[in-house]
Amino acid sequence: MRERRKDPRTDAGFSLQNLLRVRAARAGCALAALATEEGVVMAATHDGRAAQRAAAHAALGLASGRRREWRGARTGAGMAALRFECQGRRLCLALVGAGPPDFAALESMAERVRAILAEARGRRAA
Fold it and tell me: Is residue 65 part of a domain?
């Protein structure tokens, strides 16, 4: 069986990672991560433990609310997180940066995540 190269224009994973990278840079954030309600990373600006830790922290902190912010005691870095529904699943979106949390940027990113996942689902159904 031949392996086909993924087309970045139609690959949802590539689109999500690119969205997070571009919007996080625009918001002045060091890291952005999209995760499931359980804290499993779906996409992030950087692969690795930092993204896994941010996703897990956001998922745990959002268990009781829709949006939340934290500030690190040692580093002073802040994290803003938002929980939202997409295709019947709860997802968490987290932004980590030095500045104040930008919930407008999080809401905008969540809307775009919904659109990307809906497009991917539509392509699979066709």
Answer: yes
Strand partners, 100: none
CATH number for position 69: 3.30.450.30
Beta bridge partners of 91: 36, 84
DSSP single-letter state for residue 64? G
CA atoms within 13 A on the CB side of 123: 11
Cα 87–chain centre separation: 15
pLDDT tens digits, one per residue of 83-113: 999 888 899 999 998 777 778 889 999 999 9
Q: Is 36 a domain residue?
A: yes
Which CA distances in Å does 84 have to 15, 49, 75, 116, 122? Answer: 19, 23, 28, 14, 20
- Could you report the per-residue pLDDT of 23-70, keeping only the tens digit for each? 999 988 899 999 998 889 999 998 899 899 888 888 888 877 777 777
Model pTM score = 0.82
Q: CA distances (Å), 88 to each of 5, 45, 68, in order?
A: 30, 24, 21
Instruction: Return the bridge partners of 44, or none.
Output: 33
Q: Taking a C-beta distance cutoff of 8 angstroms, is the pair 79, 94 a contact? A: yes
